[in-house]
Amino acid sequence: MDNQEPTDSSQNTKQFIISEELTAEGKWVKLEKTTYMDPTGKTRTWETVKRTTRKGQSADGVTIIPVLQRTLHYECIVLVKQFRPPLGGYCLEFPAGLIDDNESPEAAALRELEEETGYKGDVAEWSPAVGMDPGLSNCTTHIVTVTINGDEAENVRPKPKPGDGGMSLSFQCLSTSMVWWSGEGYGPFVFF
Fold first, then answer.
1. Which of 13, 52, 75, 104 pairs with 157 at a CA distance of 20 to 30 A?
2. Are 152 and 111 in contact (CB under 8 A)?
3. In the sheet that 29-37 helps form, which strands lie side by side, from edge to edge?
C-alpha cells in the first residue's frame, strides 16, 4: 500500500500576476485592474489600491500602540479621535502615519506620536511589515509599541502638534484593564 497523500489537481497551478493596468491615480493612491492566474489555472481580474508614496521603505507607515504609564495609575492605551472621510464619521484609533524618506520606523513612530498626541516616549518593540487590508490594497505598516513615562514634565499635559496634513485630532486614554469589546462600545476602531 502506498503512503501517498491525496492530491487536489485544482490546487496545483502556481498563482501569479499577469498584468496591472492603471485605471485612476491621485496624490496618495492609485487604482489598478490586476489580472492574475488563480490556483485552478483560470485568469481572473481584481481591483487593487496601491500607495503612490512608497519609496523603498520597509513599509508605508507605522501604527503606534502607545502605553501611558503613570505612578499610582493603571496603564492605559492612548488613542486618537479623528474624522475619516471614507467612513463619513469619527474614528477612535491608534496613532499612525506614513514613514518619511530616509526615516526609520522607530523615528516615524515617535514623530507621529508627538504630532498626534503631544506625548514623547520610547520604542519598546516593533513588528515586521504587515498588510493593512491585503484583499484591497498593498498598504503595509510596522506596529510599534511605545512606552510613555506620564510622570515626566513634558508628558503631564501634552498637546498635539499637527503637521501639514490638515487633520484635526483629539486623544483619549483607555485603561488596559478595561474589556475592549464590552457593551461600552470601546474598541480600537469606534465610529461616532
1. 104
2. no
3. 16-25, 29-37, 43-51
State the Cα torsion 83-86-92-95 to the nearest 10°.
-90
Distance from the first to the final alpha carbon of the chain: 63
Q: What is the DSSP letter of 95?
A: -
Alpha carbons within 13 A on the beta-carbon side of 44 = 11
Rounded CA separation 137/46 (Å): 11
State the cell numbers at 136. Answer: 484591497
Cell (9 digits) for 25? 491615480
Residue ranges of the alpha helices (H) in 44-171? 105-117
- Per-residue confidence in pLDDT tens, the chain, 192 aa: 444 444 455 556 799 999 999 999 999 999 999 999 999 999 999 999 999 988 777 899 999 999 999 988 888 999 998 888 888 888 889 999 999 988 999 999 999 999 999 999 999 999 999 999 999 999 999 999 999 999 999 999 998 887 665 566 677 776 665 534 444 444 444 433
Beta strand residue intervals within the chain, DSSP E:
16-25, 29-37, 43-51, 61-69, 76-84, 89-93, 96-98, 122-126, 130-131, 140-149, 169-175, 190-191
